[in-house]
Amino acid sequence: MIPYYGKHYAKQFIRGKPIRFGYKNWALCTSPGYMVAFSVYTGKSSEKKDFGLGGDVILNLIEQRKLPAKSGIKVYFDNFFTSLPLMRHLGELRYYATGTIRANRVENCPLKDINQFKREERGSSDYRVSDDVFVCRWNDNNVVTVATNFENWALTSATRWSHEKKQKFRSRNRQ
Predict the structure, then answer these.
(1) Which residues contact 55 (CB under 8 A, 6 or more apart)?
(2) How far apart are CA 150 and CA 75, in angstroms?
(3) What is the 3-state secondary structure (H, E, C) of 101-162?
(4) Taking every annotated instance into account, which residue ranges of this chain make up the domain PiggyBac transposable element-derived protein (predicted)?
(5) What is the per-residue pLDDT for 171?
(6) How far apart (Å, rounded) are the C-alpha atoms in residues 119 and 111?
(7) Fewer CB atoms < 10 Å away: N or C end of the chain?
């Protein structure tokens, strides 16, 4: 968000955000943080959305920047943008994509239920792999679900801080 408190048709209001009033921007950035393409959100569009607002934003930014397909470009985004149809489509275009995904967007992927995960030990995980998309859910501080169309799907353990034990521990990946 770019803060703005005046009157303008493109000004947005988002309750609960640190900057509640202003212009909402979509940005395509390099890994060091340089912005290479951006778009200002101006409200609802009458165009048909194949992948929803978030998915179409990703495709428009890639098209705007004219990123070459089949060149090994990796795109990362958060759960607002991620959907399984978008992952498949980007894979068909030969863009590598990874993003956190909301629980209601995993379609019929038979992962363990989020409420069941919350009762399990921290570090537990479940994953499913198809021909074109890998989806993984694990229990960290909260339940996290990630989808990718290219990443290596070998699960590893990580060293984490336990508030209860007041020490570091090595999380175990159980299925």
Answers:
(1) 49, 81, 83, 85, 86, 89
(2) 11
(3) CCHHHCCCCCCCCHHHHHHCCCCCEEEEECCCCEEEEEECCCEEEEEECCCCCCCCCCEEEE
(4) 1-166
(5) 67
(6) 15
(7) C
Residue type, 87: M
Output phi, psi for 11, to 5 deg: -70, 135
* Residues 6+ positions from 153 with CB-CB distance below 8 Å: 127, 129, 134, 136
Q: Which residues partner with 98 through β-bridges?
A: 76, 148
Q: Other CB atoms closer than 10 Å to residue 1's CB: what's the count?
A: 15
Burial degree of 99 (CB within 10 A; 0-12, 13-18, 19+): buried
Euclidean distance between CA atoms 112 and 175, whole angstroms: 10
Retrieve residue 24's tokens.
């909402």
Edge-to-edge strands, sheet with 143-148 = 74-77, 96-100, 143-148, 134-139, 125-129
Q: Which two tokens stand for residue 115?
A: 């409420």
pLDDT tens profile 39-84: 887 777 767 678 888 888 898 899 888 888 888 888 999 998 999 9
